Every structure is written in structure tokens, then in C-alpha cells.
Amino acid sequence: MKLKAAASIKVGAELPPQVKNILQRQIDCYSGVRPKSIHTDAEWAKQKGFAAPLAQGLMSTAYVSQMMVDFLGMGFVKGGRISASFIKPVLAGDTLTMHGAVKSMEAEGDHTRVTVEFWCVSQEGVKTMVGTASGLAA
Question: Which of 7, 58, 63, 123 is deepest in the core (most CB within 10 A)?
């Protein structure tokens, strides 16, 4: 698979959003079911002040990675980077939408590093994670 052509990418361009339903089954598979875990034990999560079990932060990161692979293909697989801040919890039953926009493009050796500013939003419009992700283009 070839790298995406840098000439086909424009600063400010928005990436197609990715929508994910956060199911308890997915959370369980991600971390393994354990008692007294805010991720997999609904009663324990409620005792700790959450309305439902929390999805692990790295699940959101994986969804952003998928968005970047869809955008840059092997350019993200081979040269991808992510810097993220988790700002609100994602709960079982939430619907999460990942958004991104091309922030910058800079020469890096024989390639161009494409940096995307991303943000994840719950079904209530609350940002849950923000950051940047980058990969290579030809």
C-alpha cells in the first residue's frame, strides 16, 4: 500500500467522523471482567460515583487510530503518533463521535508529516478527549 499523496491533503480539511456505540461487552473484552472494577462491575462503578461502568481511555485512542488509518493508511501505520488528553469519562451505553481536522503539514525527510487535531464527543455534545495525531504522506 502506498502512502497518500500530500498534494491531495489540505490544511483545514475535516476528516469523516467516526461514530462508535460503547457497549459493555466491548469494555469487558478490552479489560477482562473483574469484580470491583469501575470498568466491568456496574455496582462498583456506581459506588464510586459513576452512572455506569467506564470505558478505558485507550478504547477512545483506538477509535482515533482507526480514523487516522482510514485517512492516511500506511502513513499512520508506519509513522503514526498520538498525543491525547482525556477530559471526561466515557460510559457504557454512550455513543462517541471522533472528529478531526488537518492542522498542519511539515516536511519530514522524504515525506510530509500531516498533523490532525482531533476531538471526541459524547451523544450529549460533551468533549471526552482532545489531542493531535499525525502520520506520513508522500
Answer: 63
Q: What is the CATH number of the domain that holds 13?
A: 3.10.129.10
122 secondary structure, DSSP code? E
Which structural domain range is residue 108 located in? 6-23+54-137
CA–CA gap between residue 85 and residue 113 (Å, rounded): 21
Residue 25, C-beta contacts closer than 8 angstroms, at least 6 positions apart: none
pLDDT digits (tens, 9 = 90+) for 93-102: 999 999 999 9
Cα separation, 54 vs 106, in Å, equals 37
**Residue 59 placed within a domain:** yes
Q: Determine if the pTM surpasses 0.85.
A: yes
